[in-house]
Specification:
Elements: H1 2-20, E1 33-38, E2 42-46, E3 49-53, E4 56-60
Antiparallel strand pairs: 1-4, 2-3
Length: about 60
């Protein structure tokens, strides 16, 4: 459930950037903000038990 929420947030970010910011494109016409896989898995201890989190890697190449 947490992974789905994180993926939805990343997808929302990418959609907002590409639809609202002209500067999200680089001078060569490629996307400036991209989803580049995932960071290494992390294990978190919560009040409900241990969970494994896989965080998407997002890269802003416009800067």
């Amino acid at each position: 459930m947490l992974a789905q929420a994180i993926e939805a947030e990343i997808q929302s970010l990418l959609n907002n950037v590409t639809s609202h910011h002209i500067t999200s494109l680089q001078t060569n016409g490629k996307q400036g903000v991209v989803h580049k896989g995932h960071l290494p898995e992390r294990h978190l201890q919560t009040g409900f038990g241990d969970i494994t989190v896989k965080v998407p890697k997002v890269r802003d190449k416009t800067m």
